[in-house]
């Protein structure tokens, strides 16, 4: 079984990151991130095997630009999804197994820092060690001890909510500097074709922070499997809607982000393939959404943000009042 942010290597040596927990029979949805290279590289294994990064930035549009990436149409999503056949998977790396390896042995300062961070969060949260994972270049053992980030995974809805609170409230974890936040917002605005003022509203400490002067990305992963009996959608065109999103729906933290939104007596499932909007959807309140309207066989409609047809955005209008 494949979960979001597992890592897969195919028979050609291409490294992929798994997308979500919903995969068709004999296929896995994922995006290509690294390819083997003989050129000098920051990402090398012991023994000299090196990789070149083909995904320079995280966005749906950037994934579409990867020439080697294959696509499969899926009626559940109402569009094409990056994929490969399961029979081409040679290696399947799981973030929880990465933590087990670090517990057994750490080979450098980055691995030691990653393990210390996991153990610290385990103690602060009282969550079991099985709730944590490590992904990215550390899981692949191709990390650069100076340049690589720590890609921290937590499994489960309630577990993710617990850690969001701890990271936000603890002085152990430091926000990115104003200049780093500015650069991040500028990059997001360019990548997603949104205005800079909206891009500035998307940063949250829990999502990306510093610890021991390392950049840490926090990646919640759902433990529930999506089955193929879920609804099928029919695309109905681009739409902009304003409505109310109840706060702290934990599925907003996962990929793709999903929340319920209410516009008068109409009920919408908001699904964002652009993960940068997850903090806005999680905090809820009055929100404006642009995306692809999709009709379902159920008593609700879907608005998908980040599709090739409509692009889109999630804009906060008024925060929810917490009780």
Low-confidence stretches: none
How many β-strands, per DSSP?
A: 18
Mean pLDDT across all residues, rounded?
Answer: 92
Task: Give, in order, the helices and strands.
Answer: EEEEEHEEEHHEHEHHHEEEEEHEEE
The CA-CA distance between the termini, in Å, is 38 Å
Helical percentage? 10-25%
The number of helical elements comes to 8
Which word captures the global form? globular
For the record, the count of structural domains works out to: 3
Strand percentage: 25-35%
Q: Structural class of the secondary structure composition?
A: alpha+beta
What's the main sheet like? 8 strands, antiparallel
Radius of gyration (CA) equals 19 Å
How would you summarize this macromolecular structure in one to three sentences?
By secondary structure, the chain is an alpha+beta fold. It has helices at 60-64, 95-104, 109-125, 136-140, 157-169, 178-192, 196-200, 278-283, and strands spanning 7-10, 15-18, 27-37, 43-44, 50-53, 71-74, 79-85, 89-93, 132-135, 150-155, 208-211, 214-221, 233-245, 257-263, 266-272, 285-296, 301-305, 313-318.
Q: Explain this structure to me?
A:
By secondary structure, this protein is α+β, with helices and mostly antiparallel strands. The protein contains eight helices and 18 strands. It has helices at 60-64, 95-104, 109-125, 136-140, 157-169, 178-192, 196-200, 278-283; strands at residues 7-10, 15-18, 27-37, 43-44, 50-53, 71-74, 79-85, 89-93, 132-135, 150-155, 208-211, 214-221, 233-245, 257-263, 266-272, 285-296, 301-305, 313-318. It is globular. The model has no long low-confidence stretch (mean pLDDT 92).
């Amino acid at each position: 079984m494949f979960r979001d942010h597992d890592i897969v290597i195919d028979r050609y040596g291409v490294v992929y990151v798994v997308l979500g927990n919903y995969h068709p029979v004999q296929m896995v949805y994922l995006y290509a991130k690294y390819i083997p290279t003989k050129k000098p590289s920051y990402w090398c294994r012991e023994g000299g095997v090196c990789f070149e990064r083909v995904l320079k930035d995280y966005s749906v549009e950037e994934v579409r630009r990867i020439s080697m990436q294959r696509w499969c149409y899926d009626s559940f999503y109402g569009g094409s999804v990056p994929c490969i056949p399961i029979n081409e998977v040679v290696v399947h790396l799981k973030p929880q197994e990465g933590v087990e390896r670090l517990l057994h042995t750490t080979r450098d300062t980055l691995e030691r820092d990653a393990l210390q961070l996991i153990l610290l969060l385990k103690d602060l949260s009282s969550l079991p060690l099985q709730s944590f994972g490590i992904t990215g270049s550390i899981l692949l053992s191709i990390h650069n001890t100076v340049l690589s980030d720590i890609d921290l995974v937590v499994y489960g809805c309630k577990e993710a909510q617990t850690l969001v609170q701890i990271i936000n409230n603890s002085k152990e974890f430091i926000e990115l500097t104003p200049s780093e936040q500015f650069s991040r917002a500028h990059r997001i605005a360019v990548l997603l074709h949104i205005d800079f003022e909206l891009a500035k509203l998307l940063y949250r400490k829990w999502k990306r922070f510093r610890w021991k002067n390392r950049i840490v990305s926090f990646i919640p992963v759902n433990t529930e499997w999506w089955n193929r009996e879920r609804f099928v959608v029919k695309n109905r065109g681009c739409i902009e809607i304003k409505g109310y999103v109840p706060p702290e729906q934990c599925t907003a933290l996962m990929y793709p982000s999903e929340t319920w939104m209410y516009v008068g007596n109409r009920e919408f499932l908001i699904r964002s393939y652009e993960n940068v909007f997850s903090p806005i959807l999680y905090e809820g309140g009055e929100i404006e959404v642009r995306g692809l309207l999709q009709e379902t066989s159920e008593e609700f409609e879907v608005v998908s943000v980040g599709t090739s047809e409509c692009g889109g955005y999630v804009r906060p209008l008024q925060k929810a009042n917490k009780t």
